[in-house]
Structure formats: structure tokens, C-alpha cells
Amino acid sequence: MSTEAASENVIFIGKKSVMNYVLAVLLQFDVGNKVVVLRARGRAISKAVDVAQIVKRRLLGGRVEVTSCKIDTEDVGDPPRKVSTIEIVLEQVE
């Protein structure tokens, strides 16, 4: 997850409020991107799931689908420790 270069349609979920990330997803779709990727790790995983569900169910109804959800672990820090990661791919359907 951390070795790839971040493209413009990837949103990294962190410490901000859920609605900030929901707005970021909506802006990506508004700009014309058909696919938006949410990435999170550790405690932010539940927030990433919340963002995906709010966009999918409340705001964009049936116009967005979750096309992929990848779960992984990566080693971070010194000494290395395992941290869970998630990548949720949202795709706009016509």
C-alpha cells in the first residue's frame, strides 16, 4: 500500500472527520473521475468503511458501487509491528 505513488483519485483516510472525506469523494466524482480509491490503516479502517457506506447509501443512492475491497497488513515502525490496511474502490455506475 505505501510503495505505490498516490494518484489523484486516491483518498487517504486519517484523523479528519468522516464528512470531510465524504466531501472529498463527492468532489472526485464531480471532477469526472469514475473510480475513487479509499485507503486507510489501523484505527482509521472503520472510518473508511463509514465513508464508503455514507457515499453509497445516503448520498449517491444506486449510482455508486463498491467494486473491490482489499485487506492486508504491513510492517511499520522500528521495531517493526503489523498494522492492518484496507483499500476500498468505489466506482460510479451509469
H/E element string? EHEHEE
- In DSSP terms, counting alpha (H) and pi (I) runs of 4 or more, how many helices? 2
Number of separate domains: 1
- Give the full name of the CATH homologous superfamily: Alba-like domain
Please give the CATH architecture: 2-Layer Sandwich
Binned strand content: 35-45%
- Backbone shape: elongated
* Radius of gyration from the alpha-carbon trace, in angstroms: 13 Å
The main sheet orders its strands as 1-2-4-3
**Distance between termini?**
29 Å
- In the predicted model, the low-confidence regions spanning at least 5 consecutive residues are none
Largest sheet, strands/sense/barrel: 4 strands, mixed
Helix-and-strand structural type: alpha+beta
Oligomerization state of this entry?
single chain
Explain this structure.
With 94 residues, the protein is of the alpha+beta class. The protein has a single domain, classed as 2-Layer Sandwich (Translation Initiation Factor IF3). Helices cover 31% and strands 37% of the residues. The chain contains two helices and four strands, in the order βαβαββ. The chain has helices at residues 18-31, 45-59; strands at 10-12, 35-41, 64-76, 81-92. A four-stranded mixed sheet has the order 1-2-4-3. Strand 1, helix 1 (18-31) and strand 2 (35-41) form a beta-alpha-beta unit. Helix 1 (18-31) crosses helix 2 (45-59). It is elongated. The relative contact order is 0.23. The model has no long low-confidence stretch (mean pLDDT 90).
